[in-house]
Design a protein that fits this description.
By secondary structure, the chain is mainly α. It contains 28 helices and 14 strands. The strands form five sheets. It has a six-stranded mixed sheet. It starts with 16 loop residues before the first strand and ends in a 43-residue tail after the last helix.
């Protein structure tokens, strides 16, 4: 998975001094002795490489044309960190507490400054629901486990639709600090019990082993779960290990760098490495599977540049190019600049909507001012002006952890009060009309938004375990209602089928039948191979799941009704028509009645968040009709009539009239829980309509679809059908990937 705007990267500061003798990089924190300072020489090429890394990432987030692969900057920085930290531990074996204190004093104060400022800005400028999410993200970021929070969020097909967090860039801070903990314990432990060449050999072996295992995980997870590969520590350790290998090899090369063959080899290595770093910045884009094998060029290239720098920088060295003043200035400011720029971009866009790249670039440049102030007033004073004693550094680190946590609690409490309390338990759904143009039954009134915006965000159907993960290709046994009944309704499709579980369960329960749920998010029931944007590749698991599910239905007892539903935005209209034909050929062979629910309108915006920002005004979050629907061959293409499928199209009910917009709230009921799925409350309201429209006014004891009668009537048959087939279709709407 590439680094989309929703998955930013953060760059950590570190030392850029290296011992030109076999002793490798040295940390230049406060309190170093004059002798230690004399043993180090400044590496301006490393500072420039950091500048190149941060500028590439900033350009990517600002959407600058031509720099679509700028997200590789984070990989470059991981290599630099592995190189410098390993060199530090090689040169001066420290106590574990001393090492932890140095890292805390160097990293945490600036991070805490940005966290607190983001909490204040978020509380003032973001709507309460976004503020609630931000408070949770603050806790994860302050606790240094933000990367794992975003693994969970991005691997969740539904949660991944939410807007990016202003603190999502702290995922890499979490990865860095988890690496420091592991590397410090490992290398300092080896240094305690081993000495000389034995210690160096053990460090080399440990580095190679960790790097090899991590690279295997990275390659595997990029194919199976791109968010896990992108955000997790395990799949990123090999990048740090590449830098560590450069540090280990550099010590051996330093004394030989003056030899002409070695010197020319290092120069060639430097140019090849720099080319391997720069080329992906221009050639990669959001569709490049990442990290995976695509991360090898920038990672190995950065390691090559670092290794080449062990020779003298002169003439036409690539390292001399990196010592340009603009790159070095960006390198000095890189940590604070990156910490500041992402909250500025995300909060501005949450407040004012999507911005052009020119505005994003201007905001990114403006973020350099608070970054410079943070560097001068926070980073440098605490780094150089505080006592070198470990207890002082640990105290600074502890304060930098606690203060953002207090800010998170304050922000969370404020958003809860603004929302009128927590989401709470689901309220009883108002009575729905079984047919007609009104949503609610005659005499039913809703006095307040139902569910509330806070509750709507969590208003999911029951049986979330039935909606299998993206990387699974088999559905579990998932039955509701009268599980022992030989009669059952099968609900079949993707997450837009799963949103109807409560309504289908009400239909089954009325007849004492079972409900079987066979649902895979992001996977069309239409026989069509698609690309999944969460996984960042072709959705092969979907094809396997569809085949296994159709075979499972063919080998089992015949259902009383197969209820099909799904997102109507996979492929082109022509591809959907062909795909439905192939699927219906298989389903018709079951001999069971077939029914189809037309897709619900797609708002394309986070409706609960919009309502919270608008103080619950029901008219504030409508969305364009022309983007809410796509042409549906099952409603307008004659397929339903050809295969004897009964249809019910909720579109004209949920987007009534012929105006330019569709409502997000209808008769007091909040219709959507996110950018495209209906609330479970609405599904329960619509249950009588589905029962009447798909099964007819049947005898609850076993009529309706029995004997292949009611549900297999022609399209639109039954008194509950809401509008003519295709009434909701809006030709010309853009095709979207799942």
């Amino acid at each position: 998975m590439p680094a989309p705007a929703a998955a930013p990267v953060a760059l950590l500061p570190d030392v850029v001094r290296v011992d030109r003798r076999p002793a490798a990089p040295e940390d230049a924190d406060a309190g170093e002795t004059g002798q230690a300072r004399r043993r180090t020489a400044f590496r301006p090429d490393i500072e420039g490489l950091r500048g190149l890394a941060v500028l590439s990432v900033l350009a990517f987030h600002a959407a600058l044309p031509g720099l679509t692969g700028g997200y590789v900057g984070v990989d470059v920085f991981f290599v630099i960190s592995g190189y410098l930290i390993t060199g530090l531990l090689l040169a001066r074996p420290l106590g574990l507490w001393d090492f932890a204190a140095r890292r805390a004093r160097r990293i945490l104060p600036a991070a805490a400054t940005v966290l607190v400022a983001t909490a204040v800005a978020g509380g003032a400028l973001l709507d309460p629901l976004r503020g609630t999410d931000l408070a949770r993200d603050l806790i994860a970021a302050a606790g240094q486990f933000a990367n794992w929070r975003f693994v969970g969020r991005q691997t969740d097909y539904l949660a991944a639709e939410r807007d990016p967090s202003p603190l999502q860039h702290f995922w890499s801070l979490g990865v860095e600090n988890q690496f420091y903990l592991l590397w410090g314990v490992l290398l300092l432990g080896l240094a305690r019990y081993l000495h000389g060449r034995r210690r160096t050999a053990a460090m080399t072996l440990a580095t190679a082993a960790v790097g090899a295992v991590s690279l295997v995980l990275c390659l595997r997870w990029t194919r199976t779960s791109a968010p896990l590969a992108y955000f997790s520590t395990g799949s990123r350790l090999w990048e740090f290990a590449a830098g560590a290998c450069a540090a280990l090899a550099g010590g051996a090369l330093a004394s030989r760098a003056q030899h002409r063959p070695v010197l020319w080899s290092l120069r060639l290595l430097g140019w090849l490495g720099l080319a391997a770093v720069v080329a992906p910045i221009v050639l990669y884009d959001r569709n490049t599977p990442f990290p995976g094998s695509a991360a090898l060029p920038p990672v190995l290239g950065a390691a090559a540049v670092l290794l080449a720098g062990h020779g003298p920088l002169r003439g036409v060295d690539a390292g001399r190019l990196l010592t340009a003043r603009p790159l070095r200035a960006a390198g000095r400011l890189s940590y604070a600049w990156y910490l500041w720029h992402w909250p500025v971009l995300t909060i501005a866009q949450a407040r004012y909507g999507a911005l052009p790249w020119t505005a994003l670039a201007a905001l990114t440049a403006a973020a350099a001012l608070p970054a410079w102030l943070t560097l001068r007033l926070v980073e440098q004073p605490l780094r150089y002006g505080s006592s070198p004693a470990p207890r002082r550094g640990l105290a600074v680190g502890a304060s930098a952890l606690v203060i953002p946590l207090i800010a998170a609690l304050a922000l969370g409490g404020g958003t809860v009060r603004a929302l009128g309390g927590t989401a709470g338990a689901p309220a009883a759904a108002p009575a729905g009309a079984p047919d007609g143009p009104r949503l609610l039954a005659p005499g039913t009134r809703v006095l307040a938004l139902t569910p509330s915006p806070a509750r709507a965000r969590e208003d999911f159907p029951p049986g979330q375990g039935c909606e299998i993960p993206l990387n699974a290709d088999r559905s579990p046994r998932c039955l509701f209602g009268a599980e022992d009944s030989p009669e059952r309704i099968v609900l079949l499709g993707d997450s837009h089928a799963g949103q109807w579980i409560s309504a289908a369960l009400a239909m089954a329960a009325q007849r004492h039948w079972a409900l079987e749920v066979l649902v895979k998010p992001g996977c069309p029931l239409v026989t069509l191979t698609v690309r999944n944007n969460v996984l960042g590749r072709t959705f092969d698991e979907c094809d396997r799941w569809r085949e296994a599910t159709l075979a499972r239905l063919a080998s089992g007892p015949r259902p009383r009704l197969v209820l099909m539903a799904g997102l109507n935005r996979y492929g082109s209209p022509e591809e959907r028509t062909g795909g439905w034909t192939r699927t219906l050929d298989r389903l018709t062979a079951l001999g069971a009645p077939l029914a189809y629910l037309g897709d619900t309108p797609v708002p394309g915006k986070d409706v609960p968040t919009c309502l919270a920002a608008a103080d619950g005004r029901p008219d504030a979050c409508s969305f364009p009709r022309d983007t809410a629907f796509e042409p549906d061959p099952m409603l307008a293409g004659g397929l339903a009539a050809r295969y004897g499928v009964r249809i019910l199209d909720p579109g004209p009910l949920l987007c009534p009239g012929s105006g330019l917009s569709c409502p997000a709230v209808l008769e007091g009921v909040v219709l959507y829980r996110d950018t495209g799925h209906i609330t479970d409350t609405l599904a329960r309201v619509l249950a009588p309509r589905l029962d009447r429209g798909l099964l007819g006014a049947a005898d609850p004891a076993g009529g309706g679809a029995g004997g292949g009668g009611g549900a297999s009537a022609g399209p639109g048959a039954g008194p509950g059908a809401t509008g003519a087939p295709g009434a909701a279709a809006a030709p010309g709407a853009p095709t979207a990937q799942p």
